[in-house]
Specification:
Its main location: membrane. Keywords: Calcium, Cell adhesion, Cell membrane, Glycoprotein, Membrane, Repeat, Signal, Transmembrane, Transmembrane helix. It is a single-pass type I membrane protein. It is found in: Cell membrane. By secondary structure, this protein is mostly beta strands. The chain has four helices and 46 strands. The protein has six domains: 31 residues, no CATH class; 102 residues, Cadherins (Immunoglobulin-like); 98 residues, Immunoglobulin-like (Sandwich), CATH 2.60.40; 61 residues, Sandwich (Immunoglobulin-like), CATH 2.60.40; 80 residues, Immunoglobulin-like, CATH 2.60.40; 103 residues, Immunoglobulin-like. Strands 26, 29, 30, 44, 45 and 46 form a six-stranded antiparallel sheet that branches. The protein has a four-stranded mixed sheet with strand order 4-11-10-7, with no helix packed on it. It has a four-stranded mixed sheet with strand order 13-20-19-16, with no helix packed on it. The protein starts with 10 loop residues before the first helix and ends in a 9-residue tail after the last strand.
Length: 666
């Protein structure tokens, strides 16, 4: 039940600018079957520095601009949240400008350049300033941008927008080309200095792909379709620039309204099929999850079952629903006979629950002895299932006989090879280093892989699929070892990438690939300069030693337990043989007639010539006959006590147990 992190988490990629970030999912629990909602909160770390959308900003400011005038400059972005997000700006010391931090209504911080002293174009026609954005992390991170200021002649009045902030709502099904909003600005100057053109300021590329603004009229139009489920709102930065180069800014907040454009999605979480016909009412046989990406009333769903069946659907937590279902797959028919007549010969079959988990896997028909498989089996989880079936007549008192049934699960090639080294999920590839002049036959590295299947399905072969220089390296077919095929020369490429193909021997063949990077260098330091961005903590090779030690411990423990079990078994057999020798006064009887063996493949009995003779002492009260077949097939498989039903992957073993022995008179 432990929950592990499967890959590196990136809060900014998962949740963007949201103040809170969490991942929700359902955890399915069997026996009893239920579902729980799990929510994992992702906490932010200061792993991003503030960054300006461009490295250089160009401003044109008239020399007659009065001290105290403000100019909006580039906004820095920091994907982190909270105290790790953007906190302020700093401006390198100069004699004309200072920077002040402003906060908009949505909480974002932007910088305003404030003129402290009047400009003089004749003395300084241009200025170059360094603007720094700082976050609140410990230690803080920063980003910089260059401000290039060109001092121009008299343009006394900058443009002024009618509103500093516009707000508009737009349905997500609005057609591309439709008008979003019209912004307007005025300029008190005359002539070319009063001619205003509109444009967008520096914004993310995905916003610029959605909207456009007419340079002459200030009309904002939609370019692409909106999706409320993807983005619920946009903030547009609009500029108005007059003929003299003065610029005014305003913000346009576009709110996207949800439209019911997504159908509910049904996901089958669990299905227990078939269902025994004697299952009590209220048995949960299926779990469903229904989700609608829309919001509000558009995202509320109701579920119902159609068709005629004794089933009902019940709402559970987290958008889940519970259902019933139909009976399943027959795998074996256990049959018995009773020479009595009438009710005394009426037989009923029961599956004795020696292991409580088998009740969820197998069931038996009480009337005809058909054994059903309720769910799929996995050879990698369990190879053999042993259970006891009891057949009982209808007499008084009732007489019963037990039969042991073993189900063997054969392996199917359902697992592809898994690469353990080099680890395929690392962000940066491993680089093996070999020196120039290395002779042919030198082992550079080894690809390590396993296959969860068994037997022939788990055999792995390695072939070189792709290489920078195919003549330089070779790979062992059965061990994955990579060797130099010839001596390395000075003129060989310094970097080599090998793609190794790993295939099993199952049917159908399953495969995977591994990528190995090899660097040719005199010293390791030459390669380390190219690997400075690789974090040593992410190297999974440090776990190989642990796995090897763990494997040695497990093998040693298994060997010790095996030897201990053999010793106990030998002692038990020696004691049993001694007791049998001491009971020399016991009289033996031979069971009359041949023992007929049930043949489930042919549906009858084996010839009388094929039988076993059983000798028992007078102290015996019960006789057990065990005929067990190994996994491998045999020409006499149908006559060696193993029933094979024709279902792929299933074998059955029957052990008969008599309730009593016939007396000598019988």
């Amino acid at each position: 039940g432990n929950l592990y992190v499967n890959e590196r988490l990136d809060r900014e990629e998962m949740c963007g600018e949201s103040a809170s970030c969490s991942v929700s999912f359902e955890a399915l629990v069997h026996n009893p079957l239920n579902v729980f909602r799990v929510q994992v909160d992702i906490q932010d770390v200061n792993d991003n520095a503030p960054r300006f959308l461009q490295e250089n900003f160009y401003l044109e400011i008239n020399e007659l601009t009065s001290p105290g005038a403000r100019f909006a400059v580039g906004v820095a972005e920091d994907p982190d949240v909270g105290s790790n997000s953007l906190q302020g700006y700093e401006l390198k010391a100069n004699g004309y400008f200072a920077v002040e931090v402003k906060e908009s209504q949505d909480g974002s911080k932007f910088a305003e350049l404030v003129l402290r002293r009047a400009l003089d174009r004749e003395s300084e026609p241009s200025l170059r300033l360094l603007l720094t954005a700082l976050d609140g992390g410990d230690p803080p991170r920063s980003g910089t941008a260059q401000l290039w200021i060109n001092v121009t002649d008299a343009n006394d009045n900058p443009p002024v927008f009618a509103q500093d902030r516009y707000r508009v709502s737009l349905r997500e099904d609005a057609t591309p080309g439709s008008t979003v909003l019209n912004v307007s600005a005025s300029d008190a100057d005359a002539g070319t200095n009063a001619r205003i053109t509109y444009g967008f300021g520096k914004m993310p590329a995905k916003v610029l792909q959605k909207f456009t603004v007419d340079a002459e009229s200030g009309t904002i139009r939609l370019l692409e379709e909106l999706d409320f489920e993807d983005t619920r709102g946009y903030v547009l930065l609009v500029e108005a620039r007059d003929g003299g180069g003065l610029v005014a800014h305003c913000k346009v907040v576009v709110e996207v309204l949800d439209v019911n454009d997504n159908p509910p999605e049904i996901t089958l979480l669990s299905l227990s099929s078939p269902v025994p016909e004697d299952s009590p009412a209220g048995t949960v046989v299926a779990l469903l999850n229904v989700d609608d990406p829309d919001s509000g009333e558009n995202g509320q769903v109701s579920c119902e079952l159609s068709g005629e069946a004794p089933l009902s659907i019940v709402a559970s937590s987290g958008g889940s629903y519970k259902v019933n279902n139909e009976p399943g797959i027959p795998i074996l028919n256990v049959s018995a006979t009773d020479p009595d007549l009438g009710r005394n010969a009426h037989l009923s079959y029961t599956l004795l629950q020696g292991n409580p988990t088998f009740g969820h896997l197998f069931s038996i028909n009480r009337e005809n002895g058909t054994l059903y498989l309720l769910t799929s089996l996995d050879h990698e989880d369990q190879v053999e299932f042993s259970m006891m079936v009891q057949v009982q007549d209808g007499g008084f008192p009732p007489l019963a006989t037990n039969v042991s049934v073993s189900v063997f699960v054969t392996d199917l090639n359902d697992n592809a090879p898994t690469v353990l080294y080099p680890h395929p999920n690392t962000t940066a590839p491993y680089t093996e280093v070999v020196a120039p002049g290395t002779p042919a036959g030198h082992m550079v590295t080894k690809v390590v892989a396993v296959d969860a299947d068994a037997g022939y399905n788990a055999w792995i072969s390695y072939t070189l699929l792709q290489a920078t220089d195919p003549s330089l390296f070779s790979v062992g077919l059965h061990n994955g070892e990579i060797f130099t095929a010839r001596q390395l020369r000075e003129d060989d490429a310094p970097e080599h990438t090998l793609v190794i193909l790993l295939k099993d021997h199952g049917e159908p063949v399953l495969s995977t690939s591994a990528t190995v990077s090899i660097s040719v260098a005199e010293m390791v330091k030459e390669v380390l300069t190219d690997l400075t961005d690789v974090a040593p903590a992410s190297d999974p090779r440090r776990h190989v030693t642990f796995y090897l030690i763990l494997a040695v411990i497990l093998v040693s423990a298994a060997f010790f337990i095996t030897m201990l079990s053999v010793g106990i078994f030998k002692c038990y057999k020696w004691r049993q043989s001694k007791e049998l020798y001491n009971s020399s006064r016991s009289t033996t009887y031979r069971t009359p007639g041949p023992f007929h063996h049930i043949d489930a493949v042919r549906g009858g009995f084996t010839p009388p010539s094929f039988y076993h003779q059983v000798y028992l002492t007078t102290d015996s009260r019960q006789s057990d006959l065990l005929c067990k077949k190994p996994f491998t097939s045999s020409p006499l498989g149908s006559r060696q006590g193993t029933i094979r039903n024709g279902e792929p992957g299933l074998y059955h073993q029957i052990v008969g147990t008599a309730s009593r022995l016939p007396t000598p008179a019988e």
